[in-house]
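Give me structure tokens for this 125-residue protein.
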Amino acid sequence: MDKRAIAEAFSTGNFEPCLPYVTQETIWNTPGEQYLTGKGEIEAFCRTIAAYFASVTTDFRQLGVIEDDSGVAINGTAEFIRDGQLVSRASSCDVYRFDESNRIISIHSYCITERETPMSKKQPA
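Here you go.
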């Protein structure tokens, strides 16, 4: 897989094909939430996320991608729906750094999650 394919798959929760590119030195930092180091911690967290994704319907939307020789940044949104009801929506940006063999050096994830509340629903015009 090339860098962009790895980043796009990982950012939409398709972790399995990306795991060969995660090393013992890889870090995954989500400021204010968690800091994971190494293949074991990252794989375990990916399993947790995958289990959640299996429990909901997801609507991922990629809004933009920026790529250079050693990195990829993906900006997007996601909606999580269960039993026809919106559970939450998120806006995120994942910034990936890669080595020369396309192994992931680091992931920095910035995410704003909005829970659906009666006050957050849009009013008809």
